[in-house]
């Protein structure tokens, strides 16, 4: 299992980098082969308008429950490369760690499912459920073709429930299942001034400076209390009641560890909320990048011609991504710096997800995890966003449980990403039990759709 995973991790399937398109395809083909080898009689590469996905199917007996498993095979870009202690696509095993880009996010979870099927077939010659595996190739770049993919293959993706494996747990001895995800909106802002860079001696003080204009625009997005200043931003937010805040407080979240892993000197955020609440049940607005002017060594005395920035928001129930996209766009344009041209484009948007805790598949997954970890998993809302989950819940009308084995300090999206082999092995055992649990539910597994989504 680990050898196969290492071979797969050598393929740099970075979906955001057009130069890696052939590698993303190679990753898909590798996975289709691996799925066939694991015991999926049907495994194929599905074309999309962008990078390919992989579909694999094992129909054991049409009368059994059918589960759709979602994961992704593309990975994040690797920069800054200089911060990696070993090359991102040359996996190394150090103690219990396997280090490589894509290790924890998300190839480990796919590997876990393949191994669980192998295990069932090796021991009993059959799987207790029918499985349809859909592994996307564009999750890390916003899943631009995923909704279309679901629509064009709706019949082949039919299932009773969905298991999403692109999330993690709270700690090695703090198992968790995710029952909620934040939504996401992403903008690109452009501020342009002179037709070309100008000499700051000849023109300084006479024309507006795009970098200063952008800086002022971004600085105005938050108040001193850490709250987003965009009018209407919080209007639809479903405030957690005392009961939910108590449940949140009971989640074993270790702030010093969290901050230590972040490597950031202090916890900062919206006033009136704990760090854990800020990253799960509160919405956020962040700058992800800014560029413009001279950034080389030494001095170059110019007034830059333009400045660009990327912004992202994380949304919670019941915020509507379309509404937030427009509110922020309008806010930025209304405050556009004088003497400059400002434009705002919405690059992507994804809905939040919130699943009912008492759904049979959530409870089945909780039993499977408890059997392996020796304690009941916490049912948590996650700070991240997985737009395809909302698409699966809405387009296919499926209840979703989010079961993945990454750990918070596995450096998702960061240099030196890793997985912990012990987590992977436990995950395989839990996945094996999960199919037993879901199989045992029989028709009771079909209990309506996945709560509310935006
Ligand atoms: Zn992921």
How would you describe what is shown here?
The protein is an alpha+beta fold and 454 residues long. Helices cover 33% and strands 22% of the residues. The chain has 13 helices and 19 strands. It has helices at residues 2-9, 21-38, 103-124, 146-152, 200-203, 210-219, 242-250, 255-262, 275-278, 321-334, 360-373, 387-395, 421-441; strands at residues 42-46, 53-58, 66-72, 92-94, 97-99, 130-136, 161-164, 176-181, 183-192, 198-199, 284-292, 302-303, 306-315, 341-350, 353-354, 378-382, 399-402, 418-420, 452-453. A 6-stranded mixed beta sheet has the order 1-2-6-3-7-17, sandwiched between helices. Helix 1 (2-9) packs antiparallel against helix 3, helix 3 packs across helix 13 and helix 11 (360-373) crosses helix 13. The longest helix has 22 residues, at 103-124. Mean pLDDT is 94; it is low at 449-454. The structure holds zinc ion. Zinc ion (ZN) is lined by residues 72, 105-106, 139, 166.
The description of the largest β-sheet is: 6 strands, mixed
Arrangement of strands in the largest sheet: 1-2-6-3-7-17
Instruction: Kindly state the number of beta strands.
Output: 19
> Number of helical segments?
13
What separation lies between the terminal Cα atoms? Answer: 38 Å
What is the percentage of strand-forming residues? 15-25%
Using the CA coordinates, give the radius of gyration: 23 Å
Question: What small molecules accompany the polymer chains?
Answer: zinc ion
Oligomer designation: single chain
Mean of pLDDT: 94
Q: Helical amount among residues, as a percent range?
A: 25-40%
Q: What is the 3D form?
A: globular
Q: Would you tell me the structural class of the helices and strands?
A: alpha+beta
Question: Which stretches of 5+ consecutive residues score pLDDT under 50?
Answer: 449-454
């Amino acid at each position: 299992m680990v050898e196969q995973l290492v071979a797969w991790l050598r393929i740099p399937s970075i979906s955001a980098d057009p130069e890696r398109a052939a590698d993303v395809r190679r990753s898909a083909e590798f996975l289709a082969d691996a799925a066939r080898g694991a015991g999926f009689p049907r495994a194929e590469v599905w074309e999309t308008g962008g990078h390919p996905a992989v579909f694999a199917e094992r129909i054991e007996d049409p009368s059994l429950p059918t589960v759709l498993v979602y994961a992704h095979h593309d990975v994040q870009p690797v920069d800054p490369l200089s911060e990696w202690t070993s090359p991102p696509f040359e996996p190394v095993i150090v103690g219990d760690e396997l280090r490589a880009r894509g290790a924890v996010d998300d190839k480990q979870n796919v590997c876990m499912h393949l191994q669980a099927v192998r295990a069932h077939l090796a021991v009993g010659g059959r799987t207790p459920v029918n499985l349809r595996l859909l592994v996307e190739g564009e999750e890390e770049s916003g899943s631009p073709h995923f909704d279309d993919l679901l629509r064009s293959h709706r019949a082949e993706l039919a299932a009773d429930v969905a298991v999403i494996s692109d999330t993690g747990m709270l700690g090695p001895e703090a198992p968790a299942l995710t029952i909620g995800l934040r939504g996401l909106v992403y903008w690109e802002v452009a501020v342009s001034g002179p037709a070309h860079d100008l000499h700051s001696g000849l023109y300084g003080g006479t024309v507006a400076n795009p970098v200063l204009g952008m800086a002022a625009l971004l600085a105005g997005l938050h108040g001193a209390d850490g709250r987003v200043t965009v009018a209407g931003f919080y209007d639809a937010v479903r405030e957690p009641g005392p009961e939910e805040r108590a449940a949140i407080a009971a989640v074993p979240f270790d702030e010093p560890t969290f901050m230590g892993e972040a490597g950031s000197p202090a916890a900062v955020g919206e006033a009136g909320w704990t760090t854990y609440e800020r990253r799960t049940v509160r919405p956020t607005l962040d700058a992800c990048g800014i560029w413009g002017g001279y950034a080389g060594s030494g001095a170059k005395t110019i007034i830059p011609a333009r400045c660009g920035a990327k912004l992202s928001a994380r949304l919670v129930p019941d915020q509507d991504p379309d509404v937030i996209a427009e509110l922020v766009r309008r806010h930025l344009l209304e405050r556009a710096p004088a003497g400059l041209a400002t434009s705002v484009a919405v690059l992507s948007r994804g809905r939040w997800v919130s699943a009912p805790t008492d759904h049979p598949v959530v409870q089945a997954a909780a039993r499977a995890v408890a059997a392996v970890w020796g304690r009941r998993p916490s049912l948590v809302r996650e700070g991240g966003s997985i737009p395809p989950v909302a698409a699966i819940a809405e387009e296919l009308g499926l209840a979703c449980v989010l079961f993945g084995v990454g750990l918070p300090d596995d450096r998702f999206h960061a240099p030196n990403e890793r997985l912990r082999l012990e987590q992977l092995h436990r995950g395989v055992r839990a996945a094996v039990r999960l199919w037993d649990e879901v199989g045992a539910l029989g028709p009771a597994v079909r209990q309506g759709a996945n709560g509310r989504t935006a």
